[in-house]
Amino acid sequence: MLLSIRSLTKVFPGTRALDDVDLDIAAGEVHALLGENGAGKSTLIKCLTGAYLRDGGTITLEGAPIDPRSTLQAQELGIGTVYQEVNLLPNLTVAQNLMFGREPRRFGLIDMRGMRSQARATLAQYGLSIDVDRDLGSYSVAIQQIVAIARAVEISGKVLILDEPTASLDAAEVAMVFDVVRGLRDRGMAIVFVSHFLDQVFDLADRVTILRNGRRVASQPIVGLSRMALVEQMLGRALEEVVASPAPEAEQAPAMLHFDGIGRAGVVAPFDLTVAAGEVVGLAGLLGSGRTETAEMLFGIRPAQTGTARDADGPLDLRHPRAAIAAGFGFAPEDRKTDGIVADLSIRENIILGLQARRGWARPIPRAEQNRLADDYIRQLDIRTSGREKPIGELSGGNQQKAVLARWLAMNPRFLILDEPTRGIDVGAHAEILRLIRTLTDKGLSLLLISSELDELVAVADRVIVLRDRAHVAQLTGAAVGADAIMHAIAGTGDAA
Amino acid sequence: MNTRLLPLYATIAIFVLAYALAYSQFPAMLSTRVIGNLLTDNAYLGIVAVGMTLVILSGGIDLSVGSVIAFSGVFIAVALRDTGLHPLAVFAALLLLTTVFGAGMGFLIDRLAMPAFIVTLAGMFLARGAAYLLSVQAVPITHPFYKLLQDAYWLMPGRGRLTLIGVLMLAVVALGAVVAHRTRFGTSVYALGGGAQTARLMGVPQGRTTVLVYAFSGLMAGLSGIVFSVYTGSGYSLATVGTELTAIAAVVIGGTLLTGGSGTMIGTLVGVLTMGLIQTYIVFDGSLSSWWTKIVIGLLLLGFILLQKGLLRLSQRGR
C-alpha cells in the first residue's frame, strides 16, 4: 500500500469527528471516499493534508510514518490536494500558477522564457495546449482545475486528493478532468476522490470507502457493488430495519401554487411542481443533489432561468427574495447561525425583523405591538426563554429555530420553505418542531420541507420529491412515501423512478 | 488580449491623448524643458508611488509615507545643521531608519492580523509627530554637497534639463518593475493580493512578504524624502501633507487594482506623469485655478474605478 491509515482518530469538543478509521490506498487506484454531511470525510482529508493534527492513529506513506503539520509539509511529503474551489490565483498567469515556488532563475531573476517553456511542457502531458501567459482566471473552471491538478502532481507526485473537484463543472468538462485523472492513475498515482455524485464515483473509482458518523463503514472494490448497497451504507440503515410509518392520508386538495418547467442551468434541471394548500412536500436526496438549490431558486435567491410560477390569480414574480416574500413565500435556511438569526438581537427583534422589513423602515411597528407579537409566538411555539428581550444567540438550537419560524409566521405566509429545520437540534425539540409543522399545515399553510432524515420526511410529508444529481428524479405520494422507497429513488434503482 | 493589461493601455492612451490635447493648444508642451521639469517636479512622488504600488499590489495600503517624507526632510536638515556628518552618511542612516519603520509596521500588520489601514495610520501620526519633535520651523539645508546634487543635470537637446533626481526616479521605477515582475518576491506580492488564503496554500511566505513589502515602502518613502529635500533645499515638518493619498491616486490611475493582485510599475509611472501633466497644463494656461488639478484627478480616479469594475464584470462573464 502506498498510503496506509491506521486507527485515525480526531476529537472535537463534543464529538469524535473520526473514530478509529483505517484506510489503505494503493498506487494506481482511484479511491472514492463517500459519506453524508458530518461523516468525517473532510476531517479525514484535513488530517492527511496537515490542516488538522490528528489525536490518534498512524499514517504511513511508502512504509514510512508521516506526520504532516501543514498543507505545505504534506505537499512536500508527496500529498497534493485539489479542492472544489480552485485553489490557485486567478490574477496570476497560468505559468506563474503552475511554477510558483519552482521558477527557473537566472542571476536571481525569474527566467521568463524558461518558465513558459516548462509550463507548456508540463501542461502538454495533460493534453492542454493553452497560452500560459494569460491570466488563469480567463480560462474555464475545468482548465483551471486541470492546471491545479498538474501543479499538485508536479509538486507532490505520490498521492493526489481530489475534494469535490467537479462540483462546478458541466458534463463535458467533467469528462475532460476525468481523462486527466485516469491518465494519472495509469502513471501510478494514488488518487483519493471525494464526490457527492454517485454516477461519477461509479464512473471513475476503483475502490470505495464509506464513512458514517466518523467511522469507517466499509472499504470495497466498486466492481459488483450496487448503488443501493452504497446508499444504504452511507445513510446507515438496512432496508429490513425500516418500519414505514403510515403517511397520513393525502387529501386531494386543489393545487395552490404551480411551478412549470422551473430550472436554472448548472444548478437544478427544470421540473414541474404543484403545491396544495396545507400540503407538506418533502425534498429528499443526498448532499449536493440540488435540494437547497431548489429552495433557493423558488425563493428567488438564485432565481430560475426557465419556467414560470403561478397561483390561482396569475403568474408570480420570484426573481428575488423580496418578490418571493411579497408573493407570500418564506424561507428558513439551512445554516441558521449565519443566514437565519441575528445572534446579538433579542428574540423580539428577531421575530419582528421580517414584518418590519416588509412595512418599510419608515413605519416602525409600535413597541406594544412588537411585544404582543413576540409574547404571542413565544407562547404559541413554546419558545423556552426567560423573556422576549434575551439575545437569541443565547437560546438553544431548537428554540432559535422556533424563533425563525415565528418570524415567518408573523408575516402570515402561504408557502414556507424549511431547509433542514431540525439540524443540530436535540431529540426532544426535534419532535416538537415536527408537531409544530403539522399544526401549521392544519391551518392551511403549505410547506416545502428539505431534510436528510428519511424518518422525518416519512413522518411529516404528504408527498416526497427525490433529487439526484441536480434533477428531480422521482415523486412519491401518499402511502408510497416510505423510507425504503425514498432510498431506492435516491440510489436510482428499483421501480420508484 | 490580456484583460489584466487593459487598464495599463487605458492609462497610456489617456496620457497620450491628454498630451496631444495640451500640445495642440500649447506647442511648447512637447519641448524637452517641459518633459525635464515633469520628471524633476514629480520625482519624489514617482519614487514613493513605486513603494505604494507594491503595497497596494499585496492588498495593503500605506498611509504613513507622506509623513515619512516630511520626517526625512527634517531629519536630514537637522542632522546636517547640528552634526558634522556628511550628507551621504545621513542618507544611509535615514534610509535604514525608514526601512526599519516600514518593516515594523509590516510586522504588526502580519502578526496582529490588523488592517494595514489602521497600523499605517498610526505610523502616519507617529512620523509626523517625530518630525515636529525635531523641528517645528522649516530648516534650510546649506551643505555644499546639496548644491552639487541640485545642480547635477544633463542638458538635453532643446535646453531641457534632465536632473539627477529625475533620472533617479526613472531608475527606481525600473528597479520596482524588476522587483515586481521578475522576482519570486514580486510574484508572492501579486499572489497575496490575489488571495491571501490561497497564496498561503501555494507556499507564499506571507509573514516575510508582508514585512518586506512595507519595508520596501518605507525605503521608498525615505528615498523620496531625500529627493524632496534636494528639490526644496530644506526640511519642513508640515511638508507633503496628503502625499500618501496623491500617491495612491497615481497608482490607481496607473491601472493598479486597489484591492490588490493586479497592476504594473510602468502604469504607476504613467499615472504620476499624467497627474504632473494636468498640473503643467494648468500652469501653462495661467487663468485656471490650481484646484482644477484636483477636480480632473478626481474625475480620472472615478473613471478608472469604473473601468476596473467594468473589466471585472467582463472577465467574470467571459467564463
From TrEMBL, chain A:
Cited SMART domains: AAA (SM00382)
Keyword Repeat: yes
Molecular functions (GO terms): ATP binding; ATP hydrolysis activity
Span of domain ABC transporter: 3-238, 251-494
Keywords recorded for this protein, A-Z: ATP-binding, Cell membrane, Membrane, Nucleotide-binding, Repeat, Sugar transport, Translocase, Transport
CDD domains in UniProt: ABC_Carb_Monos_I, ABC_Carb_Monos_II
InterPro entries in the record: AAA+_ATPase, ABC_carbohydrate_import_ATPase, ABC_transporter-like_ATP-bd, ABC_transporter-like_CS, P-loop_NTPase
Topology of this chain in the membrane: Peripheral membrane protein
Coiled coil: none
Cellular compartments annotated: Cell membrane
Pfam families (alphabetical): ABC_tran
CC terms in the record's Gene Ontology section: plasma membrane
Keyword Acyltransferase: no
Protein name from the UniProt record: Sugar ABC transporter ATP-binding protein
The species this protein was found in: Paracoccus hibiscisoli
From TrEMBL, chain B:
Alphabetical UniProt keywords: Cell membrane, Membrane, Transmembrane, Transmembrane helix
CDD domains from the UniProt entry: TM_PBP1_transp_AraH_like
InterPro entries, sorted: ABC_transp_permease (IPR001851)
Record keyword Nucleotide-binding present: no
Record membrane topology: Multi-pass membrane protein
Coiled coil residues, start to end: none
Record GO terms (molecular function): transmembrane transporter activity
Predominant localisation class: membrane
Subcellular locations according to the entry: Cell membrane
Pfam family membership, one: BPD_transp_2
Residue stretches spanning the membrane: 6-23, 43-76, 88-109, 116-141, 161-180, 211-231, 237-258, 265-284, 290-307
Highest rank taxon of the organism: Bacteria
Gene Ontology, cellular component aspect: plasma membrane
Record has Cell membrane as a keyword: yes
Stored NCBIfam families: PRK11618.1
Name of the protein: Sugar ABC transporter permease YjfF
Native species: Paracoccus hibiscisoli
Lineage: Bacteria, Pseudomonadati, Pseudomonadota, Alphaproteobacteria, Rhodobacterales
